[in-house]
Amino acid sequence: MTTTAAADLWVRGYHPAPDAERRLVCFPHAGGSASFYFPVSRALSEVADVSSLQYPGRQDRRTEKGIDSVAELADQAAEALRALDDERPLTFFGHSMGAVLAFEVARRFEQDGRGPVHVFASGRRAPSAHRPENVHQRDDDGIIAEMRKLSGTDPRVLGDEELLRMVLPAIRSDYTAIETYRAEPDTRIGADVTVLVGDDDPRTSLDEARAWEQHTTGAFDLEVFPGGHFYLTDQAPAVIRLLKAHLAG
C-alpha cells in the first residue's frame, strides 16, 4: 500500500484548513472513531488543520479486521500520517488508548527526525504505569458492560444490537491492544507533554497521570478537570480553549 493510500484509509479531515499554520492530529479512544473529534475539528478550524484517525473495524472501515497491538497500530498510523508531511508544526491529542497511541506515533516520528512539538495525553495513565486489566478476555456482554460504565460510546451504537455486535470484534481488538501494552520507565519522547485527566477517573489516578513527566525530555504540564474517564464530554469547552491557546500561540 502506498503512503497516500494509507492516509486515505486512516486520516479524516472534516474541516480542512490548508492555510492554517499548524496541524492537530487526534487519536480516538478504544472503541472510538474519527467522528468523535468532529466538534473539535469544527471549533479549531480557524487555528489549525485538524485531522483525526479512523482505526480499522469501525464506521467506513467496519469490514476490516481490528488490530490488537499498539505497536502495529502505531506503525500503520505513522505510515499514514507521513503522507500529510507539509512542514507545519504537528500537535497530537489522544484520549485513553489514543493517548498511548499518540505517544508511540510521536516516538516513530522522532526517529524520522520530525516529531510533534506537543502531545496532549488525555484520560490515560503514563505509558509505564501498568495495571492488570482483562476486559479483552471477557465475553461480549462483559465488554458491553464496560463500555456502558465508561460512558464513552455513542448511545446510538449501544442501543442498536445489530450494529453493536458488528463492531464488537474491533472493540475487543482495541482492548487487547491497550491492555497488553507495556513501556519501560525510560521510554521517552522529546515533545512537550500536557496531561489532561478527570479528578474522578477510575482508570487514571493523579499520581499515574503525573508519571507521564518521566516520559518526556521536554516540558510537562498537568491539567485536572471535574469528571470521570470521559470528563472531556462535559468539559469540552475548557479543553478546546486549552488546545486553541496552544495552537494559536
From TrEMBL:
Pfam families found in the cross-reference section: Thioesterase
InterPro entries, per database record: AB_hydrolase_fold (IPR029058), TEII (IPR012223), TesA-like (IPR020802), Thioesterase (IPR001031)
Keywords: Hydrolase
Keyword Calcium listed: no
Cross-referenced SUPFAM superfamilies: alpha/beta-Hydrolases (SSF53474)
Residue ranges of every copy of the Thioesterase TesA-like domain listed in the record: 25-247
SMART domains hit by this protein: PKS_TE
Gene3D superfamilies: alpha/beta hydrolase
Family assignment from sequence similarity: Belongs to the thioesterase family.
Protein name per the record: Thioesterase II family protein
